[in-house]
DNA sequence: GTTGCTTGCTAAGGCGCTTTAGCAAGAATT
DNA sequence: AATTCTTGCTAAAGCGCCTTAGCAAGCAAC
């Protein structure tokens, strides 16, 4: 029952033509002068045998695998980054590419092995994805290959897909200003960009966008509470510290959703209401943004789109080199007073 | 600079031996009577040229790709299921296998195409992963191939990896009983197994394990609140309903963490404390189990291990067919009175 | 001194596909 | 009637590897 897959030779034999003819016809080549008779005989035979091409053989022959390698650090651990992968898979499907996946779990040695294995398999290109936007280093084998960095940068000037943090942050401030929030604005997570030298380049851009917006709208950020770890507890503590001040903040921008989640709880515990007493907005559009009441207004990280774009850049031979930034749309939900939600809250 | 990769022929030329010799030596074949001289010349030449085998050619020649195809429904969407994939990737690495990934987004047509593409690439086996344990259907192309179902079953009796829901549930009840909780026990999410005909087979087993435990310990589940959708709000409402009863439940078993999350909030809102007033335990060990205060005692779904096992079964020619169940360990955290947490809470 | 075994290595075919060059027969040209 | 063009198709080589069969030389045996 488990009889051999039919090959082109089998089709040729059944159709009574040469293997060459089969190849030509099934490839849909134009300009070959094969008669209609032959064409239809080939198609019929192929259908009868359930012929499917052997992609390995084709790859060997054409030197193109129609496959791309995806090397992630620990992307499938974090929900955010699995969105990157989902986007890449979607993009790959659109380009009829197969994706070979490897996960390094952060180990450079594993990364090297995985990269080499993928290159040895003849992938047409590589995508390196980082779960947090980082400057990463790549194994040497990667550098000889067409590659795209997804949510990451390397020292060299290679194709990279990154979120447009600057404009995302800026447009959040614009929205807040437009809703009338121009004073008593606080930031939890970091201070002005010039005060934060040690921050990753993406966070830096996020801060620059915010402070550019503040400047443009004459906003003096009321109080900032820099915290190292962006976790629930720091958000909670940060918010409590803010609430203990003389003037209570009316808008709090948290640098990520976890901070906002903690801050929300602190606001709630203080007997205050969101957004009536305090408005809150944040970054990332993490799933937990929907677990808070009311749901968070947050600047979303467009991971899926980024993943798709990575594949597009990889496939397009004349992609402009360097960074490609993807819009970070503001998801307006109910946590900001004066803004009409764009989705059901 | 981007000069051709060295082939065995190049190595042979440099070493002054035949390509056959190179193949034999580099394959580490024993029993070939090649002299030490030849062996070392080959190794030296290979090293000098940085020779790496072309895996596509090898696959074509040996009819083994050393690759497995992973078809997920929407696994990389859900954090739980991305753990399945992580496990599979880990297992694949251990077996020096490459993983070709495809995502169907639930569309049977995409599933068929993806499966065929993977088979056309000559994968040595297929893993189908479902984000919720389900009975799934597979495209015909899959059935001719060696395959493992990960977190899923099909009608036919094929290799399948599933969580051991029955024993997981049973051991939770055992633990609760051991901690002295034998009355005022409530369940949120579903009723006794015989009352729930429409539930998926995994949930069925979970219920059977629970009720078996109840019977063994003489526990009469105090009240059950069946709800269709296992969401926060239903957990919240369910708990409120329970709290409105005459006798207040002392232990609540939620059938998943989201329910527990909602229930926790209801308990908190009612001015009660966990675990002093009400103990709570649930299933899944979702990330949100750590977002609740106190952190949830929950029966964990061993996704990573399941993923690893799937690869092991696939690679092992004489795996016993049928279902392979993986233990569901109870993660004891602080939400149950009388149980010492096994991890920091 | 033919036969036979061992040792050390290579020739060559095959995996299934693509692609280039080219063959044979008829049609068009001179 | 010989030459050149088309037309319609196929032979054959090549992608890079693995593997089987077998060759040549040296040695042992009869």
TrEMBL record, chains A, B:
MF GO annotations: DNA-binding transcription factor activity; transcription cis-regulatory region binding
Q: Which residues form the HTH lacI-type domain?
A: 6-62
Gene3D superfamilies for the chain: 3.40.50.2300, lambda repressor-like DNA-binding domains
Query: Which SMART domains does the UniProt record give?
Result: HTH_LACI
Instruction: Write the record's keywords in alphabetical order, separated by commas.
Output: DNA-binding, Repressor, Transcription, Transcription regulation
Q: Does the keyword DNA-binding apply?
A: yes
* Protein name as annotated: LacI family transcriptional regulator
**Which organism does this record belong to?**
Galbitalea soli
Task: Provide the taxonomic classification.
Answer: Bacteria, Bacillati, Actinomycetota, Actinomycetes, Micrococcales
């Amino acid at each position: 029952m488990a009889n051999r897959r039919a090959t082109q030779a089998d089709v040729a034999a059944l159709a009574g033509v040469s293997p060459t003819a089969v190849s030509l016809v099934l490839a849909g080549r134009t300009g070959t002068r094969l008669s209609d008779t032959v064409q239809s005989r080939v198609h019929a035979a192929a259908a009868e045998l359930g012929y499917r091409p052997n992609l390995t053989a084709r790859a060997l022959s054409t030197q193109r695998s129609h496959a791309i390698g995806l090397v992630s650090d620990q992307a499938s651990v974090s929900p955010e980054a699995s969105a990157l992968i989902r986007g890449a898979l979607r993009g790959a499907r659109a380009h009829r590419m197969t994706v070979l996946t490897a996960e390094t779990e952060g180990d450079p040695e594993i990364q090297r092995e995985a990269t080499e294995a993928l290159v040895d398999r003849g992938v047409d290109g590589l995508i390196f994805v980082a779960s947090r936007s980082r400057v990463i280093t790549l194994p040497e084998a990667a550098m000889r290959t067409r590659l795209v960095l997804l949510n990451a940068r390397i020292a060299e000037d290679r194709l990279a897909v990154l979120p447009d943090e600057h404009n995302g942050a800026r447009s959040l401030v614009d929205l807040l200003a437009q809703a009338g929030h121009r004073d008593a604005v606080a930031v939890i997570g970091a201070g002005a960009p010039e005060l934060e030298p040690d921050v990753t380049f993406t966070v830096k851009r996020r801060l620059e966008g915010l402070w550019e917006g503040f400047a443009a709208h004459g906003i003096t950020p009321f109080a900032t509470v820099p915290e190292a770890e962006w976790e629930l507890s720091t958000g909670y503590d940060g918010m409590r510290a803010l609430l203990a001040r003389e003037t209570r903040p009316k808008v709090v921008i948290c640098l990520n959703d976890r901070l906002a989640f903690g801050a929300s709880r602190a606001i709630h515990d203080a007997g205050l209401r969101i957004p009536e007493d305090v408005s809150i907005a944040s970054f990332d559009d993490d799933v937990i943004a929907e677990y808070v009441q009311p749901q968070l207004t947050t600047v979303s990280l467009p991971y899926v789109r980024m993943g798709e774009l990575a594949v597009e850049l990889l496939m397009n031979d004349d992609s402009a080199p360097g960074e490609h930034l993807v819009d970070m749309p503001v998801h307006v939900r109910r946590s900001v007073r004066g803004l009409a939600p764009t989705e059901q809250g």
